[in-house]
Specification:
Layout: H1 6-29, H2 40-65, H3 71-104, H4 111-137, H5 144-147, H6 158-162
Helix pairs in contact: 1-3, 2-3, 2-4, 3-4
Length: about 160
């Protein structure tokens, strides 16, 4: 499995930022208030980041000590880490788009809305960092057999098995 690329995270953040900006623009054009996320959302994002690290730690310990771990458990840990980094990038971009629209208006924004959006961006950045660290913790060393090219003539093929029949 390949690592999550920084380019993918940046693209997702930019797309989500545009969506957040557009959402607030459409809401205000319809005469509605701008979107303000709950203050519980950044807390939830940080909790997901901590959970990702907690699930990745036994995988790291297994790699260092050589004690076998259930491969499905390791797969779940790395999958959660990757999904968390993608979610964090999307939420950071979305929050940044909402904040950009809020600050671009001629009316001074409410302090509560600004704080909520800054907290959302901060929680999302913490989630991305925690998820990337968790993904790093789930990295296993390369197998020495994988780095050396195999000689196809060294392994018995179907013709060698059928030669006696």
């Amino acid at each position: 499995m390949r690592r999550t690329s920084a380019g993918l995270l940046v693209v997702l953040a930019l797309l989500a930022g545009g969506a957040g900006f557009l959402l607030d623009h459409v809401r205000t054009a319809m005469g509605r208030a701008t979107f303000t996320p709950s203050l519980f959302l950044p807390v939830l994002l940080v909790i997901i980041g901590v959970a990702s690290l907690v699930l990745a730690w036994p995988v790291r310990r297994s790699v260092r000590t050589g004690i076998r771990i259930d491969p499905f458990r390791a797969l779940r840990a790395v999958t959660l880490a990757r999904a968390s980094s993608l979610l964090g990038a999307i939420m950071a971009g979305f929050g940044a788009g909402l904040l950009a629209y809020l600050l671009s208006r001629p009316i001074d924004p409410r302090v509560g809305s600004t704080v909520a959006l800054i907290a959302l961006i901060g929680g999302a950045v913490v989630l991305v960092i925690a998820a990337l660290v968790a993904e790093q913790l789930c990295t296993i060393p390369k197998d020495p057999d994988d780095s050396e090219p195999r000689d196809p003539s060294a392994e018995p093929g179907p013709s060698e098995y059928d030669a006696g029949h």
